[in-house]
Amino acid sequence: VEALNWFIDRWPGLAASTDLSSQLTQLYEAGSSVFEPNPCLDSNTVLAVQYEQLKNKWHQLKQAINGQLAQYKSDHFANNQSIDFFGSANQSLRVSAEPFSILPCDTAKTCGVFVELPAHIGLLDLFPDHVRMAHQMGLGSIQLCYDQVGWSNRQTEPTHLNNNKIANFKGQLNFELVGLFQDQTVFKKSFTSLNNYTYLFGENSQEVLDMHCPLPLVGTQINTQLDRGTYGLFPNRLTFLTAQRTDISALLKNNWQEGEAWQQQLSHEKQSEYLFFDELNDLKKTVNDAFLNHVNQAQQQVYRKLMYVNTARISDSELSAAVFDYMVHRIRFEKTIIGLYPDLYTEPAVRSALKGSQQLMNTTFFTQAFEKQTPLIDMLNEGDQLLAKYQPIWAELPVSQSHSLFEQTRNQLIAAMKRTQKP
Questions:
Q1: Is the pTM of this model over 0.85?
Q2: What percent of the chain has pLDDT over 70?
Q3: What is the rounded distance in angstroms from the CA atom of residue 170 to the CA atom of residue 211?
C-alpha cells in the first residue's frame, strides 16, 4: 500500500488513467480477511496448545541429550555407568556389587579358608568417593579380599573325658576385610562374629590358647599320663589327636550369606574404626583431570548435534531427530503467530519471545552457548527458564486485539482507491 501511494503521488495522471478499482478492492478484501480470522481460531487456545507442544519437544530434546551422554559413557567406561556428567568430580557414586566377589588375599593367612564370598554395596561404599570414581572411569580397579582369618576372645572348657591335659577351645571367628585399588591397600577392617564356636580339641596349654590359627596343630598327637596308676595297663599313658571341631570355610560362607554380625557392623562406620586407611590423595588430581576431559568431550558431541540440524533426516541419531523435531515446531509456532495472528506481533512480549535477545531457543541459542562453552546443565536450565518466562503470555492474550496498525494501512488503501476513481 505504501508503494502504491508513492506511485500515485508521483504519477497521478498515469494512476488516474488506469482502472485499478478491481485490483484495489481485492487487496482490501484480502487484507481485511487476514485481520478477521475465523472465530474458532481463538488465539488464546491455539497458541497455548502450540506452546505446550513446544515445551514437550524441548523435554524430549533434553531426554535425548541424556541418552547421548549415556551412550558416551557406555562407549568409554567399561564399568557401571553411574557417573553424572552434570555433577562434580568428587560426586559420591554407587558401584554395582554384582561383578564383585571376595576371595583370600593370601591363602597362607586365611587359616585354611578358601571360599568365595559375595560383595554388596555397603562394602564398596567403604572406598573413598574419588577411588570409586577412578574405578568407574577405568583408571584402575577396586578389589575386596579377606585376610588374617582366625579366632579371637579365645577360652578353654573341659572335655567329657574329665582329663585336664586336654580341652575344647571356644572363640569368635575373626577376619580382616581388605580394600585394594590397583593392588594398593586402601583400607583394612576387622570383622568378628557375634557367636562363640567350639573350634578345636587339643592340648590344654597356654601356647595353644594363644594361637590365632591353630590349624598347624591339627592331627598332631597329644600324649597324656594317667593320674592313678596303670591298673595293670602298660604303658601308663593315653594318646589323643588334635582335631578341628569347626569347618571354618563353611562357617564363614554360611554366616556371610545369612547376614551374621560382620555385615551388620557396616551400618555405622567411622574412619577411626579402620585398622588401616589410606585416602590415596595423589589419585584425586588424576581423577579430576580425567573427569573434566570426559565431560568436555561428551559436551562437544552434544553441541555439534544441537547446532547442525539434519534436515535430510538421513541416519539420524536419537538426539539429531529430537533437535529436528524441536526446531520444526519452533518455526511452526512462530509462523502460526505471523500467519494467523499478525496483529499479535505488535505485542512487545510476543516479539521478545520470537525475536528478542532472550527469545525462545533456536539454532542461534545453541551456537552462542557452544561459542561461550556454557556447561550443558546451565544451557538446559536457561532454556527451562525461558519457557517458564513466556508461559503466561499465550493464556493471557486479549480476545480482541488492537487494529491500530492495520487501520492506518487500510485508511491509506481507501485514500488510494478514492484517488484512482474516475470522476
A1: no
A2: 86
A3: 12
